[in-house]
Design goal:
single chain
Length: 84
C-alpha cells in the first residue's frame, strides 16, 4: 500500500474514532474538545510521525479558537506528508 492510500485509511480511521468518542463523551457531558486534544497529544507522543494525528489535533485546536497552535499542527502534518 502506498503512503497516500495509507494516509487516507488512517484519516478515515481517526475520523471515525473521533466521531464515536465525541458522541460518547457528549452523552456523559464531558468537554469533548479538551478531551480530544489530550487524546491526540498522547497519540502524537506515541506516534510522532503519523501526519494525520497532527492534522486532527489542528482541527481540535481550531474548534477551541487556538488558531496559531492549529496552524502549527497543520504545518507539522504537511511536513510529514499530509495534504491538508
Amino acid at each position: 500500500m502506498d503512503s497516500i492510500a495509507l494516509s487516507h485509511n488512517m484519516h478515515e480511521l481517526y475520523s471515525s474514532l473521533f466521531a464515536a468518542t465525541t458522541h460518547a463523551l457528549d452523552a456523559m457531558e464531558i468537554d469533548t474538545t479538551e478531551t480530544a486534544l489530550s487524546a491526540y497529544e498522547q497519540a502524537i507522543t506515541l506516534a510522532p510521525r503519523e501526519a494525520v494525528l497532527h492534522y486532527h489535533k489542528g482541527q481540535v485546536l481550531k474548534q477551541l479558537g487556538r488558531n496559531a497552535e492549529a496552524q502549527t499542527a497543520y504545518e507539522a502534518a504537511r511536513s510529514l506528508g499530509y495534504e491538508c
